[in-house]
Every structure is written in C-alpha cells, then in structure tokens.
Amino acid sequence: MLNNKITAGVVQADNLGLVPMVIEQTARGERSFDIYSRLLKERVIFLVGQVEDHMAN
C-alpha cells in the first residue's frame, strides 16, 4: 500500500515517510488502519489555513 502512486504519479507514498498504524479491536476481530484513515472515520480532519465561506458546506 505504501508504494502506490498518489495523484497521477506526482507524489509517491514511499517518499512521505512512515505512517503510524492503529489496530481496532471489535467483537468481529481486529482491523488495522493508517492513522489518517482512522481519524477520517471519526470525522477528524486537519486543515492547513483558514476556512472561508466558499469552502464551508
């Protein structure tokens, strides 16, 4: 997964460094996520810069 190309080959994931993994344990078993996918699942996002009216929706 880390060797996949991102955005039509402009950036390769292996150039981004290590991404922490999180293991979720439920009654159905274990599942691992990269930390950004896990935060997105919880609707936690990171913004760089100010949110303006035309972006908010």
What keyword list fits this structure?
single chain; 57 residues; alpha+beta; two-stranded antiparallel ribbon; 1 helix; 12% helix; 28% strand
The helix-and-strand class reads: alpha+beta
Q: Helicity level, as a percent range?
A: 10-25%
Question: Cα distance, first to last residue?
Answer: 31 Å
How would you characterize the largest beta sheet?
Answer: 2 strands, antiparallel
Q: Give start-end ranges of low-pLDDT stretches.
A: 1-10
Annotation, overall tally of beta strands: 4
Count of helix runs: 1
Order of helices and strands: EEEEH
The portion of residues forming beta strands comes to 25-35%
- Rg on CA atoms, Å: 15 Å
Describe this structure in words.
With 57 residues, this protein is α+β, with helices and mostly antiparallel strands. It has a domain at 20-57. Helices cover 12% and strands 28% of the residues. The strands form two sheets. The chain has a two-stranded antiparallel ribbon with strand order 1-2. A two-stranded antiparallel ribbon has the order 3-4. The protein is elongated and about 40 Å long. It starts with a strand and ends in a 16-residue tail after the last helix.
